[in-house]
Amino acid sequence: MTSTTRLPATGDRVPHPARGPRPTPDAVAHWRRVRRFARTLREDLDAARRRDPAARSGVEVALAYPGLHAVWVHRVAHRMWREPALRLPARLLSQVSRAVTGVEIHPGATIGRRLFIDHGMGVVIGETAVVGDDVVLFHGATLGGKTMKRGKRHPTVGDRVVVGAGAKVLGPVWIGDDAQVGANAVVLKDVPPGSVAVGVPAKIRQKPSTAPPEPEVDDPAIYI
């Protein structure tokens, strides 16, 4: 039956304009997920552009930053990893990304928002690693394991953490929010929030009250 509306003057009925089928709840949910995913990719791009003083434009960052490419590919591979039938394709996709970018992120790793991998080459993030929001990893950084047993064997990294070039964070350790790991440090124990880990094996240092507020411009080596 055609829907109609009553004209106030004459009382005549006229049909409503034709309408297409309403989207299903599943379709609406799908497009919401797509929009959220696109917003996440845009955040990654903006984070790389904001944190690298050498970045001149969004186009340059999108085309020429392997660390950003590795993060983007990982976000796709991680979604695939959630489906048991797609785990092999997800693993293969991560290996293609490794060959192209020099960054190896296992598709099972959980990566937060706005991760920035500077330079990228040699970065390794293991399967059970968890990385928070606004984290910076420099080239050669490793979030690895120190056992061959199954289960949680990789680090958990909090928000706004900086891991310096060549640093190794090994085992199911916890790196607290706003902490920093100095270049070439080897971290085998938990690092409290807001502190600095330097040396081999890493020792904990507290930031002085005069430390710069932006972690990406603060070199942990000055606390050795």
From TrEMBL:
<dbReference type="Pfam" id="PF00132">
    <property type="entry name" value="Hexapep"/>
</dbReference>
<feature type="region of interest" description="Disordered">
    <location>
        <begin position="1"/>
        <end position="26"/>
    </location>
</feature>
<keyword id="KW-0677">Repeat</keyword>
<dbReference type="InterPro" id="IPR018357">
    <property type="entry name" value="Hexapep_transf_CS"/>
</dbReference>
<dbReference type="GO" id="GO:0005737">
    <property type="term" value="C:cytoplasm"/>
</dbReference>
<dbReference type="InterPro" id="IPR011004">
    <property type="entry name" value="Trimer_LpxA-like_sf"/>
</dbReference>
<keyword id="KW-0198">Cysteine biosynthesis</keyword>
<dbReference type="InterPro" id="IPR042122">
    <property type="entry name" value="Ser_AcTrfase_N_sf"/>
</dbReference>
<comment type="pathway">
    <text>Amino-acid biosynthesis; L-cysteine biosynthesis; L-cysteine from L-serine: step 1/2.</text>
</comment>
<protein>
    <recommendedName>
        <fullName>Serine acetyltransferase</fullName>
        <ecNumber>2.3.1.30</ecNumber>
    </recommendedName>
</protein>
<keyword id="KW-0012">Acyltransferase</keyword>
<dbReference type="InterPro" id="IPR045304">
    <property type="entry name" value="LbH_SAT"/>
</dbReference>
<comment type="similarity">
    <text>Belongs to the transferase hexapeptide repeat family.</text>
</comment>
<dbReference type="GO" id="GO:0006535">
    <property type="term" value="P:cysteine biosynthetic process from serine"/>
</dbReference>
<dbReference type="InterPro" id="IPR005881">
    <property type="entry name" value="Ser_O-AcTrfase"/>
</dbReference>
<dbReference type="GO" id="GO:0009001">
    <property type="term" value="F:serine O-acetyltransferase activity"/>
</dbReference>
<dbReference type="InterPro" id="IPR053376">
    <property type="entry name" value="Serine_acetyltransferase"/>
</dbReference>
<keyword id="KW-0028">Amino-acid biosynthesis</keyword>
<keyword id="KW-0808">Transferase</keyword>
<dbReference type="InterPro" id="IPR001451">
    <property type="entry name" value="Hexapep"/>
</dbReference>
